[in-house]
Amino acid sequence: MSTRSRRSTEADVVAAQIRASGARATPARIRVLQLLRAAPAALTHHDIEQALGDAMLDRVTLYRVLDWLVESGLAHKNADASRVFRFSLAAPGEHTAHAHFRCDDCGKVYCLDDAPPPPPALPQGFQLARMDVDLRGRCATCAEARA
């Protein structure tokens, strides 16, 4: 399969995912979601802007696309230790069965394979909608750089 047809197929899959959420699959939404799908770690707004590398998306449009992806449940938005927001892909059920490790030095977020601990008992009448487990420290690359 050629690179062009593979990109087209990826774009078709992403467009279908966006349409399944009940929204229009705009070129901006498709490109940003494709980038998040391919990213090995969570990305900042600046990372995404640099990766897209052209004038197709202005800064405000990118913010709107990212906010829409988060509101639609297609992406996650979390602040790192520097209080910089990072965005990552949210597949259905993907982030419900594991914890995250956040590096305090580089800000990268890593998905851990181990299941998170069970949620605490809630007072009567409370309903748990989401539980995030974040471990913080120094990733292997940053720890090695400091050694």
Give the structure's gist in a few sentences.
This protein has 147 residues and is of the alpha+beta class.
Task: Give the uncertain stretches in residue-range form.
Answer: none
- How far do the termini sit from each other? 45 Å
Number of helices, counting only DSSP H or I runs of 4 residues or more: 5
- What overall geometry do the principal axes of the alpha carbons give? globular
Q: What topology, given as strand order, has the largest sheet?
A: 1-3-2
Proportion in β-strands? 15-25%
Counted beta strands: 6
Determine the structural class based on helices, strands and strand pairing: alpha+beta
Q: Could you report the average pLDDT, rounded to the nearest whole number? A: 83
Radius of gyration: 17 Å
Order of helices and strands: HHEHHEEEEEH
Helix content: 25-40%
What count of domains describes the coordinates? 1
CATH superfamily: Winged helix-like DNA-binding domain superfamily/Winged helix DNA-binding domain
Q: Using the coordinates above, name the CATH class.
A: Mainly Alpha
Annotation keywords:
147 residues, globular, three-stranded mixed beta sheet
